[in-house]
Amino acid sequence: MAGYKKLWWTLIAVLAITFGILGYFGNEVYREAPPIPGKFVTTNGQTLMTEDSILDGQTAWQSVGGMQLGSIWGHGAYQAPDWTADWLHRELVAWLNIAAAEVFAADYADLTPAQQNQLQFELKQAYRTNTYDALLDEAVLDPRRVQAIQQTADYYIRLFSDDAELRSTRESYAMKENTLPKLERRERMAEFFFWTAWAASTERPGADITYTNNWPHEPLIDNTPSPENIIWSIVSVILLIAGVGGLIWAWAFLRQHDEEDIEVPQQDPISRVKLTPSQKSLGKYLFIVVALFTVQVLLGGVTAHYTVEGQEFYGIEISKWFPYSLVRTWHIQASLFWIATGFLAAGLFLAPIINGGKDPKYQKLGVDILFWALVVVVAGTFVGSFLAIAQIMPEHLNFWLGHQGYEYVDLGRLWQIGKFVGIVFWLVLMMRCVAGAFKQEGDKNLLALFTASVVAIGLFYGAGFAYGERTHISIMEYWRWWIVHLWVEGFFEVFATAALAFIFHSMGLVSRRMATAAALASASLFMLGGVPGTFHHLYFSGTTTPVMAVGATFSALEVVPLIVLGYEAWENWSLQKKAVWMQRLKWPLMCFVAVAFWNMLGAGVLGFMINPPISLYYVQGLNTTPTHAHAALFGVYGFLALGFVMLILRYIRPHLVLNDKLMSTAFWWMNIGLGLMLFTSLLPIGFIQFHAAASEGLWYARSEAFMQQPLLEGLRWVRTVGDVVFIVGALSISWQVVAGLWGKQGQPEGVVAEQN
């Protein structure tokens, strides 16, 4: 740690404090999760549903794709409704019509404004009043509400069947016919939907906000942003401005301007290291990356098209076997698999270099075993999802072999365990090389940071085992975001930073000291906002105001380090001018430039757009979220993984001459296609929905009537242009990698160097 003590202690302090916050308020999530009453009963004591029947409904919902078909509490897919908001509004309207008939013998729509206001006041009192008795573990529902629940449940029971009257609605929602064949399971699922709406409309004991912080927006019962929501939103904006200002001052006054000017070697130092057997065997990893990438991109096109035709693909009815929920599951899982594989391959390529250019015993065998284990897990995930959503999978096996129902961690628990075991095995392969390197002389600080990130990647995926099939959804959400946010956006970010620093230092392009200092400083900045910033996903998932406050505060700080990424992009771009041989690494460097750009735009601008509580209150569950998700997941981690792939390809095929025209097409068409997808379709739709959600409520912004209007349907068709452009770029880079692995490798390296 000599020479880097301040940076190391800063990082250690940041991790200790932020994980302390994450753990403390995680305990708050457990303690304050909305109750699932042991019984919901009528005023005369009749049991309507129980905790077990509600959890049975949760498992039924998981089996049809869960968050891949509509959403719960705003998390999930965006074509079908948010079932919480939709159920709540339908039940409220049913209650008002029942009350109007009972009190005034007329339809609610025909009442005078004064009569409507009277019933709306009674409605608010009936729904926001908490009738849950913790001692008896039961909640009481009055007869009028029971009748409204039964009417709403009947609609959902028919919607998820093959009822002919609702066929057009299913088509609008991209639902296949007879989504959930068994009547009993549809009834239980309706009870689960009801409970999520009950939690969203019932006030916490001793508070004037609901269990979900007054989300979703529903004017009929005054579900509007709480004062705390507005206060912490303002605080987050102030902190963002303060953080950006502080970073600029630190950058100006604390950054060392007298950076050592190192002498760049005449030949790439990495190319001088003889390839080890394990490195030579990485070609199949690169192939699986681009194969899954191609599949994922094509599935994305099908998923997007489902939003305009619902059950068909250009007139061909494919929803019977490959419905929207399945295709979207495969699309997301394929993306996670190929991006993770790209990162794992980068680690396996660096490991022998770290170990002095040699493999530990049986390293190649381990690399080969890991590859085939990956193939088994991918195949099991895809087949299991198909069998689950087709309702072929036995009910009791769905969670373990089929579909967990939770976006990004959809894969069955057995395949999730297999993935974790594979990552731990990768960790072992990495540590066998790293351990030997620590015994060598010299500065080991950068190696220590790289090792720490490898260990974190290996172990933190295990957070996904902290919940089970019947775990309370608020608690599940807490742990799910440990994977989606903390594991991916946190530790993978640190790994990428350390890996790139290690690569550029190994090439002799930056000094070890500058690479180490930059990597340590970046890690502290990423973790400071990233760890407790996990809570910005949980504002309305049954958590309390303090969780919202922490999430809003620290998620604003997540954006701060992204401000300097323009300089990082320029540095990466300028590396190719430091030596003639760096021209051969132009396209990997271009991918890293794209990473910096999309990190700033996708993770920074589009991320903060939806992060403040007041913003997310209205836009959660709208197309503003996939705008951020596409720009951040592919724009950052996708381009990073592709950059690693191209970098590895250049070294394991040293005589390969890249097709510059093909690579130019790949790079620019992917970037332009992604931009078109976001800014001509997803974001405009999101903003139009935003207005609808703010003026009428989330139920309306996701409703059939709103989403099927000509303007929005036209904008969804417009996305086809961006999709096609992107697909051309994706196929180009995939073709280049495949051709590079198995095609002619071009001229000898000496000739290439002379030409460059």
Automatic annotation (TrEMBL):
| Entry superkingdom | Bacteria
The Nitric oxide reductase subunit B cytochrome c-like domain extends over: 37-217
Q: Which Gene3D superfamilies match?
A: Cytochrome c oxidase-like, subunit I domain
Q: Which GO terms describe its cellular component?
A: membrane
Task: Write out the GO MF terms.
Answer: cytochrome-c oxidase activity; heme binding
For this protein, the parts annotated as crossing the membrane are: 7-26, 230-254, 285-306, 336-357, 369-393, 413-434, 446-467, 479-504, 516-535, 547-567, 587-610, 630-649, 669-690, 724-742
* Name of the protein: Nitric-oxide reductase large subunit
